[in-house]
Design a protein that fits this description.
437 residues; D-Maltodextrin-Binding Protein, domain 2; 19 helices; disordered N terminus
């Protein structure tokens, strides 16, 4: 009898626990394997403990993440409760009704503290469809010690002609020291994110005002020709496998004299825990050539909730936590102030601890605030977006062009042949999609 009572008591306790746990949710979060997101994953047990909820993490390489979340949201697959998406997808998917609005995180969220251009890029018809986790423009990182040893001075606003000259002088392949590291991994958000800005500043554009592709223009040929030559002569081997993370690793371990990429890299390469060259890094604006228009990109990695999620309240709770002022301070206190997620909140740049730890902060903020997606090119164009074209078809078009240029970088075809093939493919795709509309 005593044994039976004991079992019964245990059962009641068990049922009580189950009843308590019934309120808890497990949400599935799909995110990119960039450093700031790895930090978010590392710190998320604090939110789990606070709420009783759990997170099932799906952490993917950039191209794979984009493919997975795009397929899921377009087919209403419902695999994810939170998706990490960008400034390209958010307005398109929000307009299509694929995302839940996230205007209702509470007065204490302080929406007015979000940087205005970033918030505007995530808003459609007055509704916010994602909250920014970190935002970025692009700039030039370089090794001050190598420049000094070679008698070179990096100007505040370098040109691509200067970059080519410096790269040639700073390459020493016997030491595995490369004059420059640039993205080579094919993808609309990988090599084309960088190359889109290079083409812009060389005076090029994706389409003219009649939506005719311009990939065989003199500006495209000059930009892509210079890129392939620069990387072939002064870049690391196997560059077609290198995206943001791979180049960050190469730069941080001392293999690159220069690296032109996302401003979000600064928090890593200036952090002595993450970088072997932290005390030797300098920075300048992204290079220009013919025009400053579109020379540095405008991007935010943001958190959004697909309309298919059945766990909206728990998802909104996590969104609020991970993009709050309190989260920013938690990163500073636990990971170091240099590691704060950049480019989202005005209050981040007012923190004395961040100003002291991050000498690049003012330059990064200026680059983010000055990038203008509405005027990305020298000549008028029918689209917005700096390193992307804000139309649904761009995801496939950008990747196709990136693959052709990747083949040129790998030595499988000339840069001009890559652009001829890309032009033909994009013409077919745009005709099939019904442009001009």
């Amino acid at each position: 009898m005593k044994h039976l009572m004991s079992k019964l008591s245990a059962s009641i306790v068990g049922l009580g626990l189950l009843a308590g746990m019934a309120q808890a949710e497990e949400i599935t979060v799909a995110t990119v394997n960039n450093g700031d997101m790895i930090t978010m994953q590392k710190l998320s047990p604090a939110w789990e403990k606070e709420t009783g909820n759990k997170i099932n993490w799906i952490v993917l390489e950039e191209n794979v993440l984009r493919e997975r979340v795009t397929t899921d949201v377009a087919t209403k697959g419902g695999q994810f409760d939170i998706m990490t998406i960008g400034a390209y997808e958010t307005p398109i998917w929000g307009k299509s009704g694929w995302l839940m609005p996230v205007d209702d995180l509470g007065d204490d969220y302080d929406y007015a503290d979000l940087l205005e251009p970033i918030k505007a890029g995530l808003t459609v018809d007055g509704k916010l469809y994602a909250v920014p986790f970190y935002s970025e423009s692009s700039f030039t990182l370089y090794r001050k010690d190598l420049f000094e040893a070679a008698g070179l001075t990096m100007p505040e606003n370098p040109t691509y002609d200067q970059i080519k000259e410096y790269a040639a002088k700073l390459t020493d392949k016997s030491k595995q020291q490369y004059g420059i590291c640039l993205r080579g991994k094919p993808g609309w958000g990988e090599n084309m994110a960088f190359l889109g800005t290079m083409v812009n500043t060389y005076g090029g554009q994706w389409f003219d005002m009649d939506w005719k592709p311009q990939l065989t223009s003199d500006a495209w040929k000059a930009a892509i020709g210079d890129y392939v030559k620069l990387m072939t002569e002064n870049g690391p081997p196997g560059a077609t496998a290198n995206g943001f993370n791979e180049n960050q690793s190469l730069f941080s371990t001392g293999h690159c004299a220069m690296w032109i990429d996302a401003t979000s890299a600064a928090g890593r390469v200036f952090d002595p825990k993450e970088s072997q060259v932290a005390d030797k890094v300098g920075f300048a604006r992204a290079p220009t050539q013919v025009t400053p228009n579109g020379s540095s990109w405008s991007w935010s990695w943001s958190l959004a909730i697909p309309a298919t999620s059945q766990k909206a309240e728990a998802a909104k709770s996590f969104l609020k936590w991970a993009t709050s002022k309190e989260y920013v301070k938690l990163v500073g206190e636990t990971q170091g102030w240099v590691a704060l997620p950049p480019g989202t909140r005005k209050s981040t740049y007012a923190l004395p601890e961040y100003q002291k730890a991050a000498p690049f902060a003012a330059t990064v903020l200026d680059a983010i605030m000055s990038a203008d997606p509405s005027k990305p090119t020298k000549d008028p164009v029918p689209y917005t977006g700096v390193q992307f074209v804000a139309i649904p078809e761009f995801q496939s078009i950008g990747t196709v062009v990136g693959q052709q240029i990747g083949a040129a970088l790998a030595g499988q075809q000339t840069a001009d042949a890559a652009l001829e093939a890309a032009q033909s493919q994009v013409e077919r795709d745009m005709m099939r999609a019904g442009y001009p509309k």
